[in-house]
Predict the 3D structure of the following.
Amino acid sequence: MQKSLGKLYLIFGLFCLILTLFFGVMAAHSYIIPGFWKDLLGFQQLRPIHASSALFWILVSANGLVIHFQTKSRNKWIDNFALALLAIAYVSMIIAYVKQDFGGREYWEAGWPFSSLVLAAFVLLFINGLRFFIGTKPRKVYHWMWLSGSSFLVLCMAENFLWLIPGIHADTVKDLTLQWKANGAFVGAWNQLIYGVSFQLMEKIGGKDAVVESKTAYGMFFLGLFNLIFNWGHHVYLVPTYAYVKFIGYTVSMTEWIFFIRIFTDWKKSLPAELFKLRKQEGTYWFLVASETWIMLNMGLAILMSIPAINLYTHGTHITVAHSMGATIGINSMILLGGIWFMAFGNKPMSKWNRFWFWLSQSSLLVLWLSLLMAGIIKSIWNSEGQKHAFAFMMQQSGIAFKLFAWSGSLLMLALGAIGIQLLLKLIKTEPKLN
Amino acid sequence: MKATHIHLIWGTLLISWIVYLGVLLAEPVKSESLLNQTEQQGKQLWQKHNCQSCHQLFGLGGYLGPDLTSIQNKIPNLDAFQILVNTGNQTMPAYNLTPQEADALYQFLLAQNRPGPITPLNHKADLNGWISKK
Ligand code: HEM
């Protein structure tokens, strides 16, 4: 029997998810217990451990699912070597954070030699993805998404190293602009991989073949790629950067209304009563419906934040964290969990307990998201009043929001942890079917 | 959709990415945004100690501590800055910076203010969604 090449990636990815959850909850406690773990693992260590683990969970698992579904033309050794590089990079980054050996940039704080291992792994994954792409005909929209995702992961990761050029490091504005160009487009690149997985899953669990083949699907794919390349300008509205970057960012971000309306109508269509009954038991279906719901909420928020007049108030507040965590948990993680669920359990009915963990994850995520918005609104008001009270006073005023954040985060850790551990054990014990 | 059309659009988008990056790289340096030697050393210290995990510059970074783009409004001189970074506070760890390092880091932070931060105080929201200087 042919074995799944993606399985080891997903075991590693799930392991990162569990660490992400644990260290996220620890980091959140720094907000409610000042000086929490300060001498053991302070916030300056917890935040990068948490955020890098989250990135590894998403990147490794997205690639793992793509590899699992690409059953031909891939070279096993290249995939295994890329996985080894990613594992070495992750472990050494965590050790560097614990030892407070920093020197890198946001999300890759451990210095460039560590992140260069990740870049090398992306190059290998791109080579293997290209082999698959060339050997596959007819090609579907998700094959194009995977190719785009793996190419832009390489390009954006490489762009992330530009600050090493002395002329760029010395130029505050250019450096910040390029950093947020790379970071913004990087998220777009992994989204291409993940949305490709979601299309593949929709086709596999049935009902959406026509959607996958349609011109509209290609239209949305190109619009997504266009946004990846041009919409990152909304990260730097408040940086004194080149005016055209902001203008392009604003204009292109507004094309996201098209996605928003489309996704809303699709979402309503995905819930007719018979389908609801038919699919009631399947984990994958539920994770996909959850992701579509979160796409709607987060895209609504993202579009509003991309309007400079609103961004002026929300930038630099926890509203940004609500957006980034809402998207990485609600959208990316839900699709990834749906995909891994499909590999591990196929169409088997969801048990009562699993339905409980699923709904607990959704409700606690909603509270976490709202609590971040609440903390963000308090800071926005403080900013708009010219920061007339001390920073510490404003943080104290946000106390209830941070408490809700830490408590709902703990429940989320429990719920996603229970689902993640089950998937991890199942993958370790059994060989997933290649179908 | 026809394969040639897909190749054409995909290729055009990839080229656009390259062109956009090229345009940004070719931008001439604005004098107020250029860091001198000491400020660059300060920037390296900022990265080495991962100050960005708790602080922001231009609103970018972590959120546990305040934004440091306009540091002189919060910490008016080097002496006060040196005491703060070397003793820490309830949330912030103490760093063992030499006077020279503390100076470089402070200079780097002061330099952030040169191009001028954009805040709700010095900018206003327009009806078309854009922002303009007050
Ligand atoms: C699958 C689970 C999770 C993912 C993918 C995730 C992802 C992220 C990401 C991407 C960031 C960086 C945000 C930014 O820079 O804007 C972040 C920050 C953070 N996350 Fe999570 N997160 C997860 C779970 C949690 C949980 C359960 C908690 C607990 C409450 C938590 C607490 C935090 C904290 C405290 C920060 C730092 C925010 C700051 O700088 O003030 N995360 N997370």
Remarks:
- The two ends of chain B are 50 Å apart (CA to CA).
- The longest helix of chain B spans residues 3-25.
